[in-house]
Amino acid sequence: MDTLLSFFGPWTWFIIAIALFLLELLAAGVFFIWL
Fold first, then answer.
1. Whole-angstrom Cα distance, residue 29 to residue 8?
2. 17-26: string of b/e by CB count within 10 Å (b at 16+)?
């Protein structure tokens, strides 16, 4: 289990970072639309 966790760890953080970035872009788009 530890090897599996260490293998998927970096990819998990990478996907989380991309998801947060896309959410930020989406929030900015909605914000400018409501403006």
1. 31
2. eeeeeeeeee
Which residue intervals of the chain are DSSP H helices?
A: 2-34
Q: How confident is the model at residue 23 (pLDDT cuts 50, 70, 90)?
A: very high
Using the predicted structure, report yes or no on whether residue 17 has a pLDDT greater than 70. yes
Domains in the chain, number: 1
Question: How far lies 8's CA from each of 13, 17, 20, in Å?
Answer: 9, 14, 18
Distance of CA 35 to the CA centre of its chain: 25
